[in-house]
Amino acid sequence: MAKGIFLQPANIKNKMVRDHLERTIFQTVELNEILRFQPNIRSDLERFYVWGVIPGTKSKWDKIQIGDLVVFYSERKFYLLGQIVDKFHNKSLARYLWGEDQHGRTWEYVYLIDPDSLITINVDIEKVIKILNYSPGFVLQSALYHQNEKLLSLFTDRLMEDRTGKHDIITTVRREKISATIEKYKRDPSFSTTVKSNYGNKCAICGIPNEGAVVDAAHIKPVKEGGPDIEENGIALCKVHHNLFDAGLITIKDGKLITSPKMSHQLETHPVISEFKGKRVKLVKTSEKFLKWHQENIFKD
Ligand SMILES: [Zn+2]
Asked: Against a cut of 0.70, is the pTM above it?
């Protein structure tokens, strides 16, 4: 159980921060990749999210214990929460993952986050300021570490609530600009959780269960087209069927899987398609209205 919490500034308006998020938080780093630089990892996980701090923050990083929580902060809000499963000092891994800043420094005080623990949160700094008795204008400019039960429960109460939505950020980020994603989960962090749970955490087409985070909550009408974050505009799809759906190569019409004539023969005869073509797709709270929009605007007929 977590004893402490590491408050990590990571301003999403900063291009370098966004690049780092893209590299090691929005996608995992394989154990093998880390082992090339750091031979001993005190965790039996196969992949991790990775973050690090520059030497100036070492004294705060020193206090981190395995099992502690980390929360990422940007623009007066904490937006991500995860659990730290290891930490170590490794300059070459940091250089390999993130390069250097303009002063030649790198984020060599590294920590690993359990990918299954990462969730999106939306916690105002004001709540933290109140608990820690900081002055009202306080800005988190460099990392802080606290062992404070009230602070911990401010974030872990959220953890319990959001437990099932732990992959929200990962599934959404791949398709969209980071800024749009941040906007999106500010709007409705529960979209992904709700849609996936409507479908029993399985792909609506092939039924593959959501192990290894292979199932997404797909928007039928995309967010960038003004599609809302409501369950009627959502369907649970595995990565394969999600990509094919977004590419307009498949759609769902009259409750059945339809394939595009633009699809290659090779794909059409592949089991991911041939096994399900023309078969019933059981819809749960997904609205025909949005599917019709998809058929007319995305589907390549
Ligand atoms: Zn599928």
From this structure: no
DSSP-derived pairing of the beta strands 5-9 and 69-74: parallel
Q: How far is the CA of 224 from the centre of ligand 1 (A)?
A: 23
Kindly list the averaged pLDDT for each block of 10 residues, start to end, along the chain of length 301: 89 89 90 93 90 96 93 91 93 96 95 85 90 91 94 72 40 37 49 90 96 90 86 95 96 96 96 96 95 97 90
CA–CA separation, 118 and 82 (whole Å):
4
Distance CA 81, CA 156 (A): 9
What CA–CA distance (Å, rounded) separates 53 from 51?
A: 7
CA 207 to ligand 1 center in whole angstroms? 6
What spacing in Å lies between the alpha carbon of 76 and ligand 1's midpoint?
A: 38
Domain residue spans of the chain? 5-165, 190-297
- What is the Å distance from ligand 1's center to 209 Cα? 9
The Cβ-side half-sphere exposure at 10, using a 13 Å CA radius, reads: 24
Superfamily of domain 5-165: ph1033 like domains (3.10.590.10)
Strand-pair partners of 251: 258
In angstroms, rounded to a whole number, what is the distance separating the alpha carbons of residues 89 and 62?
Answer: 10
